[in-house]
Write a structure and sequence with these properties.
This protein has 8 helices and 5 strands. It is of the alpha/beta class. The chain has one domain: Response regulator (Rossmann fold, 3-Layer(aba) Sandwich). A 5-stranded parallel sheet has the order 2-1-3-4-5. The longest helix is centred in the last third of the chain and has 25 residues. It is globular.
């Protein structure tokens, strides 16, 4: 048979003149949505999320958070139990996440934070339809937790999600 010709090298002219499409670069940065009241610990969550590579946005009301979710594909969402009155289970935003179509939900790393959670307790996370739970007392260590958990999550689900994406699911 005939030989397959490999593609040519990429065009690197933009390196010499220092121009590039900034918009494309920014869109490649995964975004995280942090939903926490103005309270001790919120800055740590924002800083830790940025530290693992997310561009962080905040929302201040459940309706605002849901609206943002409709227009932006967030790679991670952090929800504190005091973001809405009552419990996470009864909150509008958590219900929105629980009823989200799985073709979209599976790409979101969903983290629940609050005093009732036992950090890194996978069974509790699973029962709450989340990927990770973090107790309030462990918020100062959330950066370390994320650096441990996110690579594990990507190693476990990355190949599966890529196959599903290629299959159009």
């Amino acid at each position: 048979g005939g030989r397959v010709k490999p593609p040519g090298p990429p065009d690197t002219e933009w390196l010499k003149d220092g121009t590039f499409e900034e918009k494309e670069v920014i869109e490649d940065i995964p975004r995280a949505l942090v939903l926490m009241p103005d309270m001790p610990g919120r800055d740590e969550v924002v800083k830790a999320s940025s530290g693992v590579g997310y561009r962080v946005e905040l929302a201040y009301k459940p309706e605002e958070a849901i609206e943002k979710m409709l227009f932006v594909n967030y790679a991670a969402v952090f929800l504190h139990n005091r973001f809405e009155a009552g419990s996470i289970a009864s909150g509008k935003f958590h219900q929105f996440m629980r009823t989200m179509n799985m073709s979209r939900r599976r790409y979101i790393f969903y983290v629940l934070i609050g005093q009732e959670f036992k950090t890194l307790y996978d069974l509790q996370a699973l029962s709450c339809s989340a990927n990770l739970v973090v107790g309030d007392a462990d918020i100062p260590y959330i950066g370390v937790v994320l650096k441990k958990v996110i690579p594990e999550y990507e190693a476990l689900f990355g190949p599966l999600m890529e196959e599903l994406r290629l299959a159009g699911k």
